[in-house]
Amino acid sequence: MKKSMKLGALALASTLSLSLIAVATPSASANTCPRKATVTMLGTIKPEIQDQFLAAVADYNKSQNCYTVKSVPGDRKLTFLQNVTPMYAAKNAPTIMYTLQEIPDMADKVLDLKLTPLARLVSKSLLASGNVNGRQVGVPSTAEAFGLLYNKKVLDKAGVDPSKIATRADLEAAFKKIEASGKKPLHFSAIWWSLGAHFTNIFHTNVGKTKEARLAGLDALVAGKADLANNATFKNWVATMDLLKKYNAGKVNLTDTEYDASIANLAGGDFGFMFQGNWTEPNLITASKGDDFGLMPLPISNNAKDYGNDSIPVGVPGYFMIDAQQSTKWEQKGALSFLTWLYTSPEGQKRVAGPVEEGGMSFIPVYKGFKIEPKTYMAKEISKFASAGKTLDWMNSYYPAGLQEEVGKVSMQQYFTDKISAADLAKAIEAAWKGKPKTWRGEAA
Questions:
Q1: Staple 385 to which of 53, 310, 390, 429, CB 3.0 to 4.6 Å?
Q2: Is residue 4 part of a domain?
Q3: What one-character-per-residue DSSP string does 351-373 give?
Q4: Region for residue 303 given its phi and psi (left: phi exceeds 0; alpha: psi -120 to 50; beta: otherwise)
Q5: Which of 28, 32, 413 is nearest to 253 (CA)?
């Protein structure tokens, strides 16, 4: 979620086509090790695939003699910066870090990875959000998409074809069909990060057909010149949110514990739809022991030809960075060795892109040379959208650090629970953005 995230059909499809390029993993023999270095990493990428990631770490640690990678758990109740800033202050910075919106805040503390083997295996478009002032300060983990997830069995039973849903009216008709079939139409989550990052993105990515038009929308918010209450796209976006609230059959819960409940509802076959992303797929497959989940666009107007109604937001959820200030050269080499092993070795690729039921993370590969290809229905659906050029920007990649928390935990949750009006929501979002640094224009965070 950061700098320029142009994920057009050619760029992303080329990464999904998985060309076969052999790359040697940087390593060191026992004879060249000055000493065995411990490489620390803050967190485990994502909690949903924590066990699989730690299994990959264990595999790597067994594979060589020079480095040991150790995951240092952070406090999930705190932001990335709230976790990492005290570590730097204590002269105990992690060697590997993983984040997105905070990349500009970290750019002066981490290595330039431009000439590394990994950076040479990724398209420029996917590297862009990890590039700050010409320095490649981060390399991507995977590509993800979000929108309306669905349980294929539930939709089939109700006679709903997701490919035929092109407007908000079509979506409501689908909800009614699911209700008539005896199932619940939707679990719409009130989790702050889902509302503050992903659902707000649906608005910001639909405000213009070009990248510059979308960035200009952010410029206007920062300058205090936006009038959201009278913005046609904003009105349509709120109307779509109202529709989802109306048909939401999930119990409203403002905490992160609702994530597990939403997974159980969709996986159990009780619900037809859920607003989330493909990062849920490992959890869904594990919970249902099946592979019957798809992803479709969330239409925000009643004109099927309106921009964005037939597309899904596709982007990079986070970038790996390597500390340059407090880590030794040997620890930095170890960090690069681990990341390169993870994405270029047969063992690492199996962990990255293999099925979750076999210990994989089920990631969509973004590095050339992958010989493991995801086989899940949802991953295939995302690839189809990407190949057809039906992708939208992750404008949440540009959000200033803390913005999604501010909007998600306050105004979006307040509107979700009917505490404020649509006009109040418009004012609150305008106030949250006003005066923020325009990092997408090169301003310092």
A1: 390
A2: no
A3: HHHS-GGGT---PBP-STT----
A4: beta
A5: 413
CATH number at residue 60: 3.40.190.10
In what helix (H) or strand (E) does residue 53 lie, and over which residues does it extend? helix 50-63
Q: For residue 279, give both structure tokens.
A: 């990062």
95 with 196, same domain? no
Count how many domains the chain has.
2
Name the pLDDT band for 152 (thresholds 50, 70, 90).
Answer: very high
Whether 46 contacts 362, CB under 8 Å: no
Q: What is the pLDDT of residues 375-414, one digit of tens each?
A: 788 988 888 888 788 999 999 999 998 999 999 999 999 9
Tokens 């090169």 appear where?
442
Contact present, 362 and 352 (Cβ < 8 Å): no
Question: For residue 429, what are the domain limits?
Answer: 146-314+393-441
Whether the CA torsion 46, 144, 12, 372 is positive or negative: it is: positive
104 contacts: CB under 8 Å, gap ≥ 6:
2, 132, 401, 439, 444, 445
Beta-strand runs (E) in 87-218 = 96-99, 131-132, 135-136, 139-140, 144-151, 184-187
The end-to-end CA distance of the chain, in Å, is 15
120/180 same-domain check: no
82-87 average pLDDT score: 97
